[in-house]
């Protein structure tokens, strides 16, 4: 059976959302195209050889509608003969794109695939795809008669269930900013980022963030309707210990070892194992725990075998609960900071953290990296890669 390898990965800087974000004025198709174009340039792949472009996007409406990945591929200059498709597994969309690319390569359906993702949250605001409509229908309403909840409430429920204090959430967030700022200062992001529109670094990193600064922020999701339904919540989740609103894109080139050798390409990592899991859609963001267990079992590895982890920081409580359940070493998790600092451009984040994880493995000499992302609806992706070379 064939394998699947990552030849290269690249991302844009992550811009802050409107107003004033450095990437806010760029159409999402052009934002996505920049990552794809840079990937082709860096690898030197003949674009005619690309069998498909699989891209993730969450807000598939307006400027990100109509199979936005197809238009990004054309805007990037790929031949018209190269097809493209856009997938939606919510925040894990571009991680799912990598999984689909790997599956297609391993099965022999494709030889060379770009797996990528984008989100311009400045252009397509979060939640705008539902446009005030009911996306769930009667069957879901009957199964969950008390109603589903926003992600912020899920983050509060997680904090309460795992007994996480406001101080713990804020301390985790402050450390994310510290690590990300230090990584930029040390040049650790330089190779993975393709500057765009004069923006060279991630915009939402705040080097001076401290627990004392974060302590002054009010709970972001506290409201009478939720207080009545959940009277025992501590209301610890704030804008400071949550991921911000962002714009960004990332892209990876996936092929097999055999095809890479024929094309003279040097793979950077092998896609070792993949998994996806579902969990309670009320707690929503806890799927990273069973997804991690599932991918480790599939790989025949233990948590101690993993050298680097990327656990998407949608909220501090998500990663802290994951740490409590898995027993992973916090020093190996989001080594160069995470989404609370770097940002979370929804559909682009899975490919973004894959790009960063690959860089960290090479910087530290680690062998295995595991990434996992919580997703709306109570799902999560998990992927283990093995550094080559």
Automatic annotation (TrEMBL):
Indicate whether Transferase appears among the record's keywords: yes
Q: S-adenosyl-L-methionine: is it a keyword of this entry?
A: no
The segment(s) forming the Thiolase N-terminal domain are 5-257
Enzyme active site: 91 (acyl-thioester intermediate), 344 (proton acceptor), 374 (proton acceptor)
- Do you know which Gene3D superfamilies this protein is assigned to? 3.40.47.10
GO molecular function, a single term: acyltransferase activity, transferring groups other than amino-acyl groups
| Pfam families referenced in this protein's UniProt entry, alphabetically | Thiolase_C, Thiolase_N
SUPFAM superfamilies from the entry? Thiolase-like
Source domain of life: Bacteria
Domain Thiolase C-terminal per the UniProt entry, residue ranges: 266-387
Q: Which UniProt keywords apply?
A: Acyltransferase, Transferase
Q: Which InterPro entries match?
A: Thiolase, Thiolase-like, Thiolase_C, Thiolase_CS, Thiolase_N
So what family is this one in? Answer: Belongs to the thiolase-like superfamily. Thiolase family.
Write down the PANTHER family for this protein, in alphabetical order.
Answer: ACETYL-COA C-ACYLTRANSFERASE, BLR7806 PROTEIN
Instruction: Name it.
Output: Thiolase family protein
What organism is recorded for this protein?
Gordonia asplenii
